[in-house]
Amino acid sequence: MRYLMMTKPTEAAPDEKLFAEMSAWIEELTASGVLLATGGLEPGGFRVTSAGDEITVTDGPFAEAKEAVAGFALVEVRSKEEAIEIARRFRKLVGDGESVIQQVFGP
């Protein structure tokens, strides 16, 4: 089962200790084969919409900064419970904030 774990931005600035802890954790998850991809997202982005034959491209940002997604991790796990445990470990590591986890369907 694959899950996309997204985190929202916070006011707290990361420090060297957090960078070191995250690096070690990412190495652990990668070595175990659980972590497939991870990254940060730029806050703006763009939206592409279609209505009939018309395609419209609109520059972002679209949501309030506190609602935007700041980063993501794509993981492959055996169960929903394992995905939740990884998310719990992440939140304990980075502190206060919010993450959203959604199962990814398809091959």
- The total domain count is 1
By CATH, the superfamily comes out as Dimeric alpha+beta barrel
Overall pLDDT level: 90
Overall, the morphology is: globular
Task: Give the SSE string.
Answer: EHEEEEHE
- Biggest sheet, in brief? 4 strands, antiparallel
CATH topology: Alpha-Beta Plaits
Q: What is the gyration radius calculated from CA atoms? A: 16 Å
What's the CATH first level?
A: Alpha Beta
CATH architecture: 2-Layer Sandwich
The N- and C-terminal alpha carbons lie at a distance of: 10 Å
Number of strands: 6
Low-confidence stretches: none
Residue share in helix? 25-40%
Strand order of the largest sheet: 2-5-1-6
Treating each run of at least 4 consecutive H or I residues as one helix, how many helices?
2
Strand fraction equals 25-35%
Structural class: alpha+beta
Describe the structure.
There is one protein chain. The protein has 107 residues and is an alpha+beta fold. It has one domain: 2-Layer Sandwich (Alpha-Beta Plaits), CATH 3.30.70. The chain contains two helices and six strands. It has a four-stranded antiparallel sheet. Strands 3-4 form a two-stranded antiparallel sheet. The N and C termini lie close together (10 Å).
